[in-house]
């Protein structure tokens, strides 16, 4: 079982922004899946490793609390956010942009002023069953979290899976456009998964839920 190891280091934050226009709201699960894929996209980006322009910030972030904050934007707010360095990933209905981590007190003002609470979406249709061999991020059925909070937790789950995959498995996932599913586990499945040794996110409890809560389990077939 894996979890985030919190140490006393300068704190960086990775910001994710979800586009939520007045007349066009993305589906809940699509937002969760797109957020997770967006985190993987910045982890795999050449600018995030080696001598890349984001590499130092990524190392500083991953050496401390791997904190992610999800905000929402529309209209001119979204256009200003898009103008900042980052990566945009589009799902079926959801569009999420991720920005390289910065110290907690240095979040760009065009991101810092965006709403961070109150993002609650719904799924318009019944979700399809997951496929054999499909990476799945399983959400704890015993917790109540907003869409924004769950997006951050899905991002954590994808991140933990990335930590544990081999280079070859990372490359294969990237070539598959980081395909994955996010689903809420049944209580029985959650209990089984907790004993599986798969990566599990243990939240620091800054918002919404109690510190130490287990939120997401990353079930990637290469980790079984």
Flag low-confidence runs: 1-7
Distance between the termini: 12 Å
Report the β-strand fraction as a percent range: 15-25%
Count the DSSP helices: 7
DSSP, total strands:
8
> What is the C-alpha radius of gyration, as a whole number of Å?
16 Å
Q: What is the makeup of the main sheet?
A: 4 strands, mixed
- Report the principal-axis shape: globular
Strand order across the largest sheet: 2-1-4-3
Order of helices and strands: EHHEHEEHEHHEHEE
Helix content: 25-40%
Integer average pLDDT:
93
Helix/sheet category: alpha/beta
Describe the structure.
The chain has helices at residues 28-44, 55-62, 75-82, 109-112, 147-164, 167-175, 187-194; strands spanning 12-19, 67-73, 87-90, 95-103, 136-139, 181-184, 200-202, 214-219. The relative contact order is 0.21. The strands form two sheets. A four-stranded mixed sheet has the order 2-1-4-3. The protein has a four-stranded mixed sheet with strand order 6-5-8-7, with helices on both faces. The protein has 224 residues and is an alpha/beta fold.
Furnish the topology, listing elements before pairings.
Layout: E1 12-19, H1 28-44, H2 55-62, E2 67-73, H3 75-82, E3 87-90, E4 95-103, H4 109-112, E5 136-139, H5 147-164, H6 167-175, E6 181-184, H7 187-194, E7 200-202, E8 214-219
């Amino acid at each position: 079982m894996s979890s985030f190891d919190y140490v006393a280091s300068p704190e960086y934050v990775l910001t994710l922004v979800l586009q939520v226009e007045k007349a066009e709201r993305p589906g809940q699960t699509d937002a969760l899946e797109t957020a997770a894929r967006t985190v993987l996209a910045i982890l795999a980006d050449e600018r995030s490793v080696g001598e890349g322009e984001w590499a130092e910030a990524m190392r500083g972030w991953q050496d401390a609390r791997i904190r992610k904050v999800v905000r929402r934007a529309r209209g001119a707010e979204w256009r200003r956010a898009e103008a900042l360095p980052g990566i945009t990933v589009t799902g079926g209905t959801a569009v999420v942009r991720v920005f390289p981590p910065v110290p907690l007190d240095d979040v760009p003002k065009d991101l810092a002023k965006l709403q961070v609470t109150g993002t609650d979406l719904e799924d318009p249709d019944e979700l399809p069953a997951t496929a054999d061999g499909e990476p799945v991020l399983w959400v704890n059925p015993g917790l109540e979290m907003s869409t924004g909070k769950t997006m951050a937790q899905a991002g954590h789950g994808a991140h933990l899976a990335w930590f544990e995959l081999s280079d070859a498995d990372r490359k294969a996932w990237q070539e598959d456009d980081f395909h994955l599913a996010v689903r809420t586990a049944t209580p029985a499945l959650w209990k089984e998964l907790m004993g599986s040794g798969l990566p599990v996110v243990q939240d620091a409890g800054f918002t919404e839920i109690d510190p130490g809560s287990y939120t997401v389990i990353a079930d990637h077939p290469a980790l079984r």
